[in-house]
Design goal:
The chain is of the alpha+beta class. The chain is 25% helix and 22% strand. The chain is globular, with a radius of gyration of 15 Å.
Length: 99
Amino acid sequence: MKLADLRKFSIRKQLIIRFQLANGLECVISEHGLAQVPTLRRAPDFNLEQELEGVSRFVLEPARLDPKSPAQPTSVGRADLDAMLASGPAAAAPDHEEE
């Protein structure tokens, strides 16, 4: 799983994805695919791509809440998220080709 895969998935599914970094900070990927560490106040001394390799739990939240039926954040493991990424339309072939 790559950071780019998570960013595409968050855009496609309109989700906010959160995960804890090894140093205790939290990374948030918005529904626009923007990866941020909100509490970071200076240039990071780590690489998000490398930090992602050690993450085992992710929290998925719908970006747009429906007041009639609010959805709760869902905690998923790495294997579950890998399965969601693999079943997405990005892995599928185009329906038809232009000649």
